[in-house]
Each structure stands twice: as structure tokens, then as C-alpha cells.
Design a protein that fits this description.
Layout (H helix, E strand, L loop, with lengths): L18 H7 L7 H10 L1 H6 L4 H7 L2 H8 L2 H19 L15 E4 L15 H16 L3 E6 L7 E4 L5 E4 L11 E2 L9 E5 L5 E11 L2 E7 L7 H4 L10 H26 L6 E5 L6 H11 L4 H10 L1 E4 L10 E3 H8 L10 H7 L11 E3 H7 L3 E4 L2 H10 L15 E2 L6 H4 L2 H11 L1 H9 L3 H4 L7 H29 L19 E6 L15 H8 L6 E6 L7 H15 L7 E3 L5 H10 L2 E4 L11 H6 L4 E5 L2 H6 L5 E4 L9 H25 L8 H14 L5 H22 L2 H17 L4 E7 L16 E9 L8 E10 L5 E11 L8 E9 L6 E9 L26 E3 L1
Parallel strand pairs: 1-2, 1-9, 2-8, 9-10, 10-13, 13-14, 15-16, 15-18, 16-17, 18-19, 19-20
Antiparallel strand pairs: 3-4, 5-7, 6-7, 7-8, 11-12, 21-22, 22-25, 23-24, 23-26, 24-25, 26-27
Helix pairs in contact: 1-6, 7-28, 9-10, 10-11, 11-28, 11-29, 12-13, 17-18, 20-23
Amino acid sequence: MKAIRRFTVRPVLPDALRPLSDLARNLRWSWHTETRELFQSVDPDGWREAGEDPVRLLGAVSAARLDSLAQDRRFLRRLTAAADDLDDYLHGRRWYQEQSGELPCAIGYFSPEFGITAALPQYSGGLGILAGDHLKSASDLGVPLIGVGLLYRHGYFRQSLSREGWQQEHYPLLDPNELPVSLLREEDGTPARVSLALPGGRALHATIWQARVGRVPLLMLDSDVEENAPGERDVTDRLYGGGSEHRLLQEMLLGIGGVRAVRTYCRLTGHPAPEVFHTNEGHAGFLGLERIRELAGEGLEFDAALESVRSGTVFTTHTPVPAGIDRFDRELVARHLGDDGELPGVPVEQILQLGMETYPGGEPNLFNMAVMGLRLAQRANGVSTLHGAVSREMFAGLWPGFDAQEVPITSVTNGVHAPTWVAPEVFRLGARQIGAGRTEDALTVGGSERWDAVADIPDSEIWELRRELREQLVVEARERLRASWRQRGAGSAELGWIDGVLNPDVLTIGFARRVPSYKRLTLMLRDRDRLMELLLHPTRPVQIVVAGKAHPADDGGKRLVQELVKFADDPRVRHRIVFLPDYGMGMAKKLYPGCDVWLNNPLRPLEACGTSGMKAALNGCLNLSVLDGWWDEWFEPDFGWAIPTADGASTDEDRRDELEANALYDLIEDRVAPRFYDRGPAGLPDRWIEMVRQTLTTLGPKVLAGRMVREYVTRLYAPAAAAHRALDPATARELAHWKGRVRGAWPRVAVDHVEALAPAAAAPNGTAELGSTLALRVRVALGELGPDDVDVQAVAGRVDAADTIADAATFPLKPAGGPDLEGRWMYEGPLALDRTGPFGYTVRVLPAHRHLATHAELGLMAGPTEATGEGAGVLMR
């Protein structure tokens, strides 16, 4: 019989064991080895059955076992030490508290998904894992972040395979009472709520669940409350599920409801209100509209409120392709954010303008969440150097007239939270070398000097560690493969072959990620005969472990999974290549450390960053990757291999795959496998071990989320907080008025005349000597504007055959006297000829104000026309 109602009966812990509850409720246990080992010792079998989740473990452990532990003095000493360590971690001074200067007292960090631990399955892939690592590293560094997301009752799907290898999805129901979260409650004990108005007089209500991520609170909104109608109750049912309106409601709840949840949390706990709001991808962009509504309620006009909100907002884009951005029908947005819906007092036409694709090729009837995110944030970034460049190209239409390199989108390369992803065995090796405290600092704060100690670890210890981790992966893979085949309908008698799958002494390549087409899961299958030769080589065999999920609606991705599975089912190679279904954090923690080589072969430049290779590198795994994302930035032949790309415009996709697959086979056959199997006098692969050493010492400090979060603090959060503090209501009104005045006057701004006084102007052959200086005189029309409203610059550098300036440098020009009778101003200044070869310059006028973050902020620029004169052209050839 089935139960008609389900609830959780929690154990009553003996007084001596009460600290276990606090340890279980703070997710620091998910990355703190000593705390995890303490819970494992409570009941080793129960720990595995509970999925290494302390909350589930304590809900299942017997009263007799608890009573026994309460009398166990050794266990109680360990418990006291762990509780004291957590208290010190939560309340002691950390990196952030030691910094000088005025840093924000709090930052709101909004993301549609968070991958903190497998025990809280609220993530689908890299975006969520990155967001989780951001929170954990902020906690380690003492950064006062408040995370904001949604609590999905079904999370993301669980993956299994049919007998034919077709992906099947399952959505187990998550009971928040069985998760490491707690309800945020009002002072009278009732659950705290936020509500959104919907068209037709309806409402969307949500409770607020709180997870403790070390020092960082993570607030998650849950629409599964009785006050909601069925449609609204299901808003937070699944991550990235449902149709367009469903997604819009999720994103309204995340952005608008998320700000209200933060306000409620700060009111109830006394936590400082955020000065900076960080929008992690466009899904959370509506948070800016809610903050505008708040300021409108305080009497600030829309334009002034927009400036105030922009000053304190950071926007991070994670997609390198327009197809990866959420776009909604304008009428749908208008219906939900108009007078009959949410955000009363905020003009809906101005809201729609924020998301309008005003650039060439844009769809005027669509509302673009990333475009709105960029317009609502004064500071924006991509997630690797290459992705920053791709993003500037992709969004350049929002700043017409500016070269892509001047588009105000910077980059902060992603990092990974080392204490989460480094295997305990790797940590212990480091602790033996430099001590546990210094090893922990190396993994959290970073610093090359701490990683240099890897050079002193004997080769034999490194190789022994690598084999131990490979062996653990072999055991894990066999267990998962056996479970998968049973789900596919195989009986135990059919599965004896699994005991011979993989070999702890064979070169092991890992490939695991989501399965959109651009990541090319099946590139390795391009020439199956050649792949078989690599797998079955008599002296230098290769084995491959593959995992990945296709989106439930992506049949093309599912076909790729099936194609790989069918190849891996072939009795000739199934001991050398395996596909492990249901890729997630639990599997990843064994997969990254256990592989010798991490393979990544996306279509360049479609990988924004790609952090799985970073996690592998922290465990001494070498990367074999296309030069995309972070690998394009940090690759060196000393610690990995670059797969050549055939990304010329004339190469069709099929030909490109063929060329790059052949390059991949050549690399494995000629360079990777020989280096792994080449043994030195001591029987060790000396050159391979040296590459492992270089990976750890060179990449280790770079790939840390601690490095990433420190960059966000110094380069984005601190400037945003300073800008926000400077923009009080009067200053915000003044800035909004100035921008309106400049936009209105800009059509009459022009460069009327440019002349070069010396020396090149006198050179009959159009040449000049390196190191000489050119004196420029420029006449500009400013209309109703004055010199205080603009900057006039010369822009110079090398030029190509089309006279396009590359690697440009700017030189300020200053007013020389007042306006002439026609209201035009003369500007003068020197231009240094600091480069040889074809050289050119031009002149431009840009808006200038003390509260602009960049000259490009308004997207306005005036330059010379063809009639202006030779001064805008090429000087030297």
C-alpha cells in the first residue's frame, strides 16, 4: 500500500552529540575532509547508503548507535575539535577582513542554479558548479556574499540508459525537509514569504529556504506552497523545464522575488544590505528592475533610479553564442510587467527598451535577457580572456561606432574550488610536504610560493599517488557500469565481463560534460578503426571513461550519447571504453583525480571557459584540449597538449571534424601514449611525472576559485561599491539629466578639421622617424555641449591595407582657447610615433563624466568625416 502523506521523523540527538546537527546543517562539511570523516565514523555503511549526506545519515542512524557514540570519549573529542574548527572558520578574520580600502559590506550573488554538493542537487552543469564554487571560495576568503537562487522540487533530471543506449530521464521528488536546508522564519515563527503580482489578479507566493555554505547564506525560493494555484505552485518544479511563460515566471521569481528575499533576510538577521548585486548570467536580470521599483517608491525618477542601480551591478555572461541566451516575446513580458502585473510604477515601455535588440540583425519583437543584463550593469565580464573577446564581438552592436576591443566587457577567468575537487589523497600528500595549514591556504587563497613545494616531492610518491587514484576510478567505474547494465535489463549472469573493465596500469583518458553538439562528444568516434587501434594497442593501450547528459529536449544530443554507448557496448572494446550514466558531482570527484589525461574537443571558440579540465589539473591530470576557454589562455607544452583547430571560414563543419579528429588521434598515438609508457632507469615515466609536476606548480595557483573571487573583489565588486556610494539620489538625478542632455545634443557634435603641424606633414614621401612627435590641431563642433562634457582624443597605431588601426593607443587633446564665432573649439596635443611600419591615426570626441565607468558607456562617439582632411588618414607606410 502507498502512503497518503509523507513526512520526516528526525532523531533526538543526545546532548553530547548536539554539535553534530550544526555540523550537518552547514555545507562546509562537503569540502572539509575532517568533518566528512567524522560523519563517516558515525556509521560507515549508513554513510554510503545516505549518499555521503550527513542530514540523511543522522535521520537513519539508530538510537542505540547514538547512545553508544555519546559515551565514546574518542569520538566526542573529535566532535569537539570539529565543532571548534567550524566556529573559528565562521567567525575568524580571513582574507577579506585583512584588506585595506573600502570594500562592499555585502554582495548579492544571483544565479539560476548552484552546485554546492550532490546532497543538494540544484544544478545541471558548469554554470551551477561555478556558482557553487564561487560561494564556497567567497566563504573561505571571508567575502560577505549572499547567494540567491531557486529551490527546484525535482532538481535536474537523473539519467539512465535503455537497453538500446537511449538516454532516459527521471525526476525524483526532493523533500526540502530531507535536504541540508532550513526555512527562513519571521520572528513569530511563521515561514517568511515573498509574493509577486501576476496578470488577472493572481499572485505567485514563495517561501525562502536557507542553506549555510560555510559563512555564506544561500537563499532559495520555493513556489510549492498551498496558497498558490497549481500553475504557480509548479513554477519551481524543475531546473530549465517548461515553456516560455514558465521560464519567464522562474526568472521573475529569481530576480524580483530574490531581491525581496534578500531584504527579508537582512531584516530578520541584521545582515548588512548588499551594496553590490552580481547577476550570474541573464536569468537573474530582473533583479535590476526590482531595485528600480524600490527607488521609484522612494521618489526617484526612472532614469535616476536606473543610474543608481547600474552603478552597483555586475553582470557576468557565460555564453559565447546568441542561441544560449533566454529571449522572450515582448508582449509576454509586457503582460507580466505592465500595470496588471508586477513592478507597478515602473513604465513598461522603458522596461521593454532595456531588453530590446537594437543592433543590426536584432529581433525587435523579442526581449533579450542578456541585453537587459548589460544595460542594467555598469560592469560586465566574460569568463575567460578568449570569451571576453568573443563577448565583445557578440554584443558590439550595443555600442555602435566602437571597435570590439573597446566594448566595456572585461573578463575574469573562472576558477574551481580546490578543497571540493582535490582528492583527499592529493591533499594528504601536500600536507606531508608543507603541513596541513599551508596546504589549505594554497588551495583557498593561492600563491605560487605555496605550490612550488611540489618540486620537492619524490617522483616515486607522485607516481604511486597517480596509480592509487587510477585504481579508485577503476573500482568506481565497474560499480557504476554494473548498476547501469542492471537498469538496462541485464542479469547478473551476463555481467561477468565487467570485472575486467579498465586496468589501473593503462593510460586513462577522461571526457565528461554536458552534451550539446558543439562539445563534440563523438569526435573520438570519427575513425572507429583508428580508435580501436589506440584502445587495443599491444604495448601502449589507451582506455577512455566517458560521461555526460543531453538536455531532455535535445534529441540530437541523445543520439550522440546513444552512438557513444553503442560503440562502448562492442565486446571487442568494452573493457577499454565505458560510458557512465548520471554524471554529477559524486561521480566527478572520482573521475577527475583518476584520469591521466582530460580530453576537451569543443568547436573553438564556443567553450566560454570549461572548468572540468581545471579540476582534473588540480589532481595531477594532464589536459589534452582544443585551444578554447581557459586552455587558450594558459596552455604551455610543459604540462599538456593542444589539439590543432581547423576553424578557417572556408572549412565546412564535416571537414573540420575530420581534420581535428585526425589531429587528436595523432597526438595520442605519437606523443601522449609514448610519454606515459616511456620508463626511465628507475622504472618510472620520468617525463610524464615532470609534466604532472608542472601542471601542479604552474596551473595550480591559476585555476583556483580563490584567485577568481579575489579578482571579482578587487576589479569589479570594490569599484561597483564605490560607484554606488557616490551616486546618492541628487547625484543620480544629475547624472541622468546629463546623459539625457548629451544624447539630445550629440547629433550636432562633429570633428570639423584635423591638421598635423610637424614633422610628418612636411615629409613629401609620407614618412617619419620612430620616436618623433606629431603636433595635432583639431577643430570640433560641440553644439550645446562644452569641453567639460567631452574628451577629445587622437587614436593611433599600426594599420592594415584597409587603413584599419590595430593595437590602438589613445592620446588626449586639450582645448586651446575658447570657442570661435561659430561656436567651434580648437583642441591641440602631441602624438608620439612610437611604432615602425604602416602607421595611422584618427581623432574622436567622446562623452566624459566623472561617474562614467568607461568612455564607451553611452555608446556615443563622433569622428572625422571624409571631408575633414588628410589628418584622419594614414601617415606612414
